[in-house]
Amino acid sequence: MSDSTAVLDRKGLGATSRHDTWWLSPLLIFLGLVAFGIYSTWAAWQGKFYLDTVHGADYLSPFYSPDVRSLLGINVPFSYAFLILWIPLGFRATCYYYRKSYYRAFFLSPVACAVGEPAGRKYKGESAFPFILQNIHRYFWYLATIVVAFLWYDAIRAFFFAGKNGHLHFGVGVGTLIMLFNVIALTGFSFGCNSLRHLVGGKLDCFSCSATARTRYKLWGGVTILNLRHMEWAWVSLFSVGFTDLYIRLCAMGIWHDVRIIH
Amino acid sequence: MSTRLFKVWRGDKSGGQLVDYKVDVQEGMVVLDAIHQIQREQAHDLACRWNCKAAKCGSCSAEVNGKPALMCKTRLDDFAEDHSITVQPMKAFPIIRDLVTDVSWNYTVNKKIPPFTPKPDTTWLMQQRDVDRSQEFRKCIECFLCQNVCHVLREHDLEDNFFGPRFLVRVASLEMHPLDSLDRTALLKNEGGIGLCNITKCCTEVCPEEIHITDNAIIPMKERVVDKYYDPIRIALRVLTGGGK
Ligand code: SF4
Ligand code: SF4
Ligand code: FES
Ligand code: FES
Known about the structure:
The complex is a heterodimer.
Chain A lengths: L5 H4 L14 H23 L4 E2 L6 E2 L7 H5 L8 H14 L1 H10 L31 H21 L2 E3 L5 E3 L1 E2 H17 L3 H9 L8 H17 L2 H23 L7 E3 L1
Antiparallel strand pairs in A: 1-2, 3-4, 5-6
Chain B lengths: L1 E11 L2 E11 L5 H11 L19 E4 L2 E4 L14 E4 L6 E3 L2 E2 L2 H8 L16 H11 L6 H5 L1 H4 L10 H11 L9 H5 L12 H5 L6 H18 L1 H10 L4
Parallel strand pairs in B: 1-5
Antiparallel strand pairs in B: 1-2, 3-4, 3-5, 6-7
Helix pairs in contact in B: 3-6, 6-9
Bound molecules: iron/sulfur cluster (2 copies) and FE2/S2 (inorganic) cluster (FES) (2 copies).
């Protein structure tokens, strides 16, 4: 028998006795987030083709909603998407699920369970700057919910098309359905939020001690149902928001033609 | 019946290594069965801790093919037949011998948590829905696999600053109890070091009792810490209205 504890003491990036493909999930997450980051930055940078009005449609890209320029009566020398995008970005960046994914996939802290981390780093977790700022997540929820409310307006607006005389009439296009799916996905994501789960009822120690507590228990139960699949909602809504922008962009550029299901 | 190769860590705190054992295995065997067979037939002095062989006592925690697991709950047919099976002791705790580690640090942490303290004149009447949350946490069998896998302890050795997931779960079970009267939020933030947890969920992944450690215990406790220490509006309101829990 040798006189070393080498097998047990190994530390450093990637040190593990795991035999499985532990690197696959952080790799896919890394690629998914990088791809979304590149696309969304490019799309926000464009500052055009975010509104499809071809054949009377009114499809507004979620990256450009709400139109803060007309809401606030301001003009900016850059794409106004940047005035909005810090909200969903901050919301997702401080989301408990995304924190887990990027701490693993980007900061390798840890890259996977029972796998070593880069040596020589002083670990403070979320107890010191910068990650202590994650504690403001609930404030991003408040802001993101306002944005989601505007996206609901946009999705409903997408059911109405301008006729030749300029009058609006009800209709459904593929774009309408994409926008509706997107806002449902975003709602499912944000209403399964862990901070919301705490605020609506989780903070109570007794769920049946008053009529208010009993109502809050029901709300907590509702958020819990969505929260159980928070990861899935996070990815579906991330994909859908990017895809909705792409679809509207292609239609507005004339590269793709929206199919009307109900005229 | 077939033969499988086991690589079992043998040694003590002065050193050790993986030793090969060939074991005749039968259908339905778990890793603990194989370890017992090795003890019986090949290495009478092989040390391992176990008690129930039913995933209920939390004694047989180890690392199988690098993954923290209960040996009595890990079936051999979970692994490809031609693949060797490595069994090592938990890495985060000091070695005693072979597969046995010294987990006594956990009991020291446990003592730091003020126990259940009901209000004076408590009416001992509770609704099931009020204790559901605490009951999930009471399933804990103290196997300490979550403590072992938690990178705050395993990689960063922050035992002096962090209670570890098992004891954050215990604090959560007390804090959410409808009849408990204490507030342990300050304990969580300071001595408990809840801010050191970066919610990467390895504890949840390994828990043999399938307790939702992160989502149901740690995150709700983090949110209570936010209420008290980080939410500016809440803090302002508390100052204006004169404090309170
Ligand atoms: S989620 Fe927190 S407590 Fe659990 S293993 Fe990760 S860092 Fe440790
Ligand atoms: S919480 Fe789960 S993993 Fe941790 S000690 Fe209890 S049973 Fe074991
Ligand atoms: S925890 Fe994911 S959105 Fe709040
Ligand atoms: S022997 Fe009791 S949990 Fe494995």
